[in-house]
Amino acid sequence: MKQLLDILSGNVPGGIYLYLVLFATLFFIFFYFYKTSELFTRRHFIRWFVGSWVVLTLLYAYVWWRNFPEEYFLKRYSIYVQAHSPEDNQWAYFLRDELSERTAPQKNRWTYFFPQRWFYYARLDCQADSARCLHVIQTLPIETVLWIQVATNTEGALEAEVVLRENGQDVYERQRFRIDPGNPFATVQKIIEWGKNWFPFRENAVLAPLPDPLQIRARDAFYRGEYEQSYRLFRQALSKSGVDTNAHPWYQFAKIRYALVLKARQGWVNPLNKEEQPWQRLNRQARNTLLRILKESNGRYMDNPFYNMMIGESFILEERFHDAEIFLENAYIQAPFDVDILENLSHLHPSRLENLKLKNKYQVWQKALTYCPIYEELLVKYVEFLLNVHPIQGDPPIIARQLMNRYLALNPGSPTIWNLLGKYYLMIRQYSQAVAVFQKADSLNPRNSLTKYNLGVAYYNLRNYTKAESFFRQAIAIDDYLDAHLYLGEIYREQGDCQRALREFRYRVAHKTGPDDAYAYEAMKGIRDCLKKLGMPIPQ
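^ thats the sequence. predicted structure below, dont judge the formating
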């Protein structure tokens, strides 16, 4: 019943409840006229009420359609590969990625592919923590799963046991395929041949398979977000094999992401300095190689959304958004549910998104979180935007809470999102609720100074200074959390101990992080107030 009401409400402010209130209001207004005026007859009552109800319904339907609750109509299919032993993980990664590469990104407007690698966005490794991944599959839900178990049989041979499951039930007989480490792609081809009639495999693969164990590890590191490791492993693997590294797309992908890492490390650079930076050189080399491969392959790679996305991403890295646009648009048309493509599109100016019927980067983020609600890093960015723009009232904070609650229903073991939810309760001044949420985050990661600090803030607002001081001291002990010194100064000032307060305030000012450090300025105010109370001269 609740889901039906949610569907009928869509993303309309007030939803179906507002519609029912307006419906009842119209009824009572016209009923009042009917009872109090002889000129407003029964026929007038019926005509005016039915006409107004039709207009109200059409208006609500229009607003509902413009704010379509897409998440309630989506269906997902996936490939889930699990190794029975850690020694076989590399072959689980190989089958996962090679089969995923050869799976159609969508069946129709509402049914799309949910790759197993997206679990990395929730910091979930399905080889090490299968129970939490299975919880996501069942709760999201992912309705159709090609389930593969990799294990060694009694004869010592490596096998992949494959079965199709729909809504948790096996719908096809289990089939075993032997994995030849010397030619593992033969197993991929056999699985595709076995399942192509009922699972949406693509006929033509674009990217060549990566059979070398070192390359398999390199690609998995790429998907995990370990880009420097991925780059080094690909370079090592290709140098050993004697393959022309400049003709290997995956090596170029790793270069582009490693260039992103180098750019972040570089920090500020004088804009007048026209010298090419190391990350720019690496990024340019990778992009030129990918464009050359694209040209020499007679456009064959233009059918691969990931290939298009990576070229577009290389242009975005250099802020050449116009050049990125054509590649990202092509990738989006081919795979509109792919969250990596959507995240790259969010860097484009809103005017460039109009052709794709997208408004701005925040709507793009919301779409990505609809398709992949376990994308933790993106969820943090979007929720912080919503809370900073509308910290207390209105729909944005409610949407933020709904997104966080949905994530935690799927992945309740995330201290990051529990901390973020606690921040929401701090903002709406529900301090007792904030304490309960921060305690949950603390139980998941007891060595997190931010959680200790947040608990201190919550207890400070509850005026429980003893517990607040304890948690601020713990935050300082872990990694000298600077803002905890400000709050300790406030506590001591409230208690009338200005000498101790001065020590904390001065420490915070001495570690000012920049000209816009608001907490350092608050500490300065505390110093002046304490000096005034102690009758000491106030420096000008």
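The first strand starts at residue 75 and ends at 83.
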